[in-house]
Amino acid sequence: MGRPPCCDTVGVKKGPWTPEEDIILVSYIQEQGAGNWRSVPSNTGLLRCSKSCRLRWTNYLRPGIKRGNFTEHEEKMIIHLQELLGNRWAAIASYLPHRTDNDIKNYWNTHLKKKLHKQKGQEDLSTHDHSSTISKGQWEKRLQTDIHMAKQALCEALCIEKSDPKTPPDSEIYSVTSQCKTVPSSTYASSAENIARLLENWTKKSPNSCQAGVNESNHSASLNNHHLSMGSSSSPSEGTICTRLLSFNSSNYSDISQSEEDAKFDAANFTPQTHEQETQMPFTMLEKWLFDDAAPHGQEGDFMDLALEETTVHLF
DNA sequence: AAAGTAACCAACCGCCTCTGT
DNA sequence: CACAGAGGCGGTTGGTTACTT
Fold it and tell me: Gene3D superfamilies from the xrefs (predicted)?
């Protein structure tokens, strides 16, 4: 017999998450921090299994997530990393700070696999086989540059940490921990943004489900009203949750532009990041691991010997 | 306009790994 | 060292949306 399910299947809700559930989850994580997922359903009253909560957080509600519209650069990164690492989506995602493993996996399965298949078909017809070798070399250089940039970012982060112990490292800026009171509000605002986006779709799709207080002619107002209306719902905890969310939305989030947020990410661009605790392995370990993986394909030497060339920078 | 098909993506399932006891 | 439980991960599914006929 297999292991019992991670949680009771009786009374556990499945399927798409509602905005209310998202708000409850985000609010809880904002207070308690991510982790100890087992206790999340019982502490929040969510009728979801712990895994579902974790997945929802990591793939959708976590701050800093960018969805859809993969850039050409990201696309190529994924292709190359997939070539190096295989279907280790979490590892690949760690090199694309804005993206989740699920998102990358989906994108690979729906877009890139076909695209590559198509390209391969064309290449087979072509007699210029060396062109692919050249582009591969370029990618190796690019990755080397990525690694260099990541190293720099990590060094900077560590230097900052050392010089000013009160300054949280980048990894902490984007994590919602139990010490979240000291974490800049932008951390949570991004989640609020995700929910706001969700609410936007939700209000469009099901105007009846949240009509109380929703002014459909004004989107931002409708979102706020929606929060308020839920704040006056039967559940008192929900009320405080929504009020808090609203305050994040209205005061803090508006102060933090997306570009600023992006800039923070860019500072640590291509630095491998983990999803859950946002704790970063020492880069050298990851680097080594990556190279070890690549080594059997005879690429280690290429990577190690490649110096960072200015000519490769323009590729980004 | 309706039906059929393809594409997309959120979420689930089950196995694996890690960690605490 | 062995075991159990929790979290992490990759494969897969199913519902929804977009597109085509």
Answer: Homeodomain-like
Q: Is the CB of A16 under 7 A from strand B?
A: yes
Tell whether pTM > 0.85: no
Residue A212: domain span: 19-64+174-262
| Residue A215 falls inside a structural domain | yes
For strand B, give the nucleotides within 7 A of a protein CB. Answer: 7-16
Q: Who's near A60: CB < 8 A, 6+ residues apart? A: A17, A22, A194
Largest CA distance in chain A: 70
Q: How many domains does chain A have?
A: 1
Q: What Å value separates CA A306 and C1' B18?
A: 35
Q: What is the mean pLDDT of each run of 10 residues along chain A (316 residues)?
A: 46 83 86 81 85 87 80 85 84 83 86 76 57 46 53 49 39 36 37 57 44 35 36 39 42 38 42 42 40 38 33 34
Residue A123 CA and nucleotide B18 C1' are separated, in Å, by 43
CA–CA separation, A177 vs A171, rounded Å? Answer: 11
Look at residue A137 and tell me if it is in a domain: no
